Task: structure prediction
Amino acid sequence: MKKSTLSTERREAREYQTPSSGVFFRVKKVLYEKKSPYQKIEVVENEFYGRVLFLDGLVQTTERDEFFYHEMLVHPALACLPRPDKVLIIGGGDGGALREALKHPLKKAWLVEIDQEVIRACQKYFPWLNEAMSDPRAELAIADGFDFIQQTTERFSAIIVDSSDPVGPSTVLHERDFYLKLKKILAPGGVIVAQAGSQWLHLEEHSKKAKFLKKMFKVCRFYSAPVPTYPAGTWCYTFLSDKIDPLKIKKLRIPAGLKYFNREVFLASFALPNFMKQALREK
Ligand code: SAM
Result:
């Protein structure tokens, strides 16, 4: 996965997305640095992208381009549901996915984030988290998502996996056993979406996941969208359901005021380039 050095002495934060290339941010100011029991958390100020959240030196979200990622993680699932009543978000401690989910007329949204320190840092430096958390429909649980899904008695019409890359505590959120458990708490007709990594750099990961997900769900589709600051610039997501096929949906329920997501973008996002079709063994 990604290696990085947040070298403030050179006043630059570099993230190697391949062993010889990557992305860098000139650091105007280091706003927050703390080692939690799970990861190193840093927030820096960059002239163009604004505040940038790093976990273990890996870009998680930037003020300027986070909407690409959060809109395309959340709305493809919720826009397909007639009545998205209970939604579960696993990971997502920066609050962007929760903010997008609450734009839908749902009853309740749980945010299950393992690291209290990520919440603390984002409450301080990413204003949308507090706004989302002040919504009476939002409930925050500080827990390992893998444990939460085994203890909850709720059934969810949408489950959104906003995990970090498969390293550290996030590893388990990319594995077969996790999805078997997710399926048990998915309400009939529900949808699961998950961030799946770089469309181009993580092909092995996609084909490994597709192998077990296609056996588990009647509908298993990958879709993609740009995220400027993520590795290779195009990000992948999985759409899983036993009832809803996004390519057969007649009516999408799209909240007003989105910056990226719309019906055309939604349909186009499921069109796969040849190298992806090969990786997924799709014709
Ligand atoms: N958009 C980012 C990406 O694609 O890499 C992910 C954003 S969000 C910050 C990822 C969150 O998942 C982190 O805050 C991390 O602490 C949390 N996380 C990692 N493993 C987890 C687990 N097992 N249960 C709950 N949250 C977890």
Observations:
- The mean pLDDT is 94.
- Residues 206 and 280 are 7 Å apart (CA to CA).
- The chain has two domains: 9-60, 66-280.
